Amino acid sequence: MRAVVIPEYGGVEVLQVRDVPDPVPGPDEALVEVVCSAMNRADLLQRMGLYPAPGPRPEHEIPGLEFAGRIAALGERVTAWSVGDEVMGIVSGGAAAELVVTHERMLQRVPDSVSLRDAAAIPEVFVTAHDALVTLGGLASGGAALVHAGASGVGTAAIQIARAIGARVAVTCSTSKVQACAALGADLVVDYTEADFADAVRDWTAGRGVDVVLDVIGGDYLARNIASVRVQGCIVQVGVMSGPAATIPLGALLPKRAALIGTVLRSRPIEQKIEANQRFCAELLPRFDDGSLRPVIDSRFDLDDIAAAHEYMATNANVGKILLDVS
Predict the structure, then answer these.
(1) What is the phi/psi pair of residue 180, to 5°?
(2) Is residue 184 located within the same domain as residue 218?
(3) Each residue of 159-192: pLDDT tens digit?
(4) Whether residue 254 sits in one domain with residue 161
(5) Cα angle for residues 167, 171, 176 (degrees, 5° grid)
(6) From edge to edge, which strands make up the β-sheet containing 144-147?
(7) What whole-number distance in Å separates Cα of residue 135 and Cα of residue 264?
(8) Which pTM was predicted?
C-alpha cells in the first residue's frame, strides 16, 4: 500500500509517500480501505518528534489519527461488521495510508447524511470535544461552556455539540474567524485580538462563570480560564498550542473549588478509547442525520501533497478540518 512515512524527524521535507507492507488485522480487528484521512495538529508534532504514537517506533512510522473508508477484511472474531461497510474512526496512527487496521469497537458507521469523502472530518474532533465537554466536563442542557480556538476542528465540533445538547457556548478566535464561529451557533464570540475573554465571559454570565472550559491553548490562558469558570466548574485541557508550561494561580483556584483536568485520547488504554467511542456513537452519531451536527471542512489535499497540507495547517488559517484524499 501507499502511505505517508516519517523516516526521520524534522520539517515538512522529511515526509515521504512510499510503498510499505499492508497491515494485517488481528482477530478483533478490521482492515479498512481508506478513502479519506484528515489532518490534526498531532501530525505536525509527530513529524517533529514531539508526539510519537504509543509503543515502540515501528519500521515505517505512518501518521494520521482518523479515517473514513470501506471494510476490506475482518478478523475471525468480528461479528458486528461486514466487508464493504462504510465506516470511519480514530486510530493512534497509520491513517495517512491506503489501508489501516483498527479494533472493531473503535469503528463508527458513516451517517447517511455525510458522504464517505467528507466523513473523515468527524471522528477525532467530535469524539475529543464530546469527551471533554460532556464526559469529563459534565456539560448538560442549560449549562454554559467556554471553548478556545473556536474555528479549529475541535472548536467547530464543540460549538455544535454544546448547541445540540441545549447548552450555551462562548468561543475565542481571531478576527477573520469571528463570522464563521457565529454562523455555527456560538452565543458569544470573543475576538482575542480585541478583547479579554475573561472580562467578556464575566459579563456574559452575569459574574457566575461557565460550567466548563475546553482549552487547546494553555500557557497564560490558564489564569483567565480560572477566572472564567464558575465555582465547582471544570477546566479541561486538551492541548498546549502556546506551550507546555503555565503558572497556576492557586489563590484564585482554591476558592473556586474547580477541577483542572488534562486529557489526551491517543495514549489511553484501548478499553477507555472504546468507552469514549461507544458513548459518542450512542449519544451523538444520530445527530448528524437529524441535522444537529455536521462536519466542517476547510480544504482538501491529495495524499501526495502531504507536505503542503502540513504547511497549511501550521499557518492556523483553517476553519474546520483539513482533509487528505487517499483513494
Answers:
(1) -65, -40
(2) yes
(3) 999 999 999 999 999 999 999 999 999 999 999 9
(4) yes
(5) 140
(6) 188-191, 168-173, 144-147, 210-215, 229-237, 259-262
(7) 13
(8) 0.95
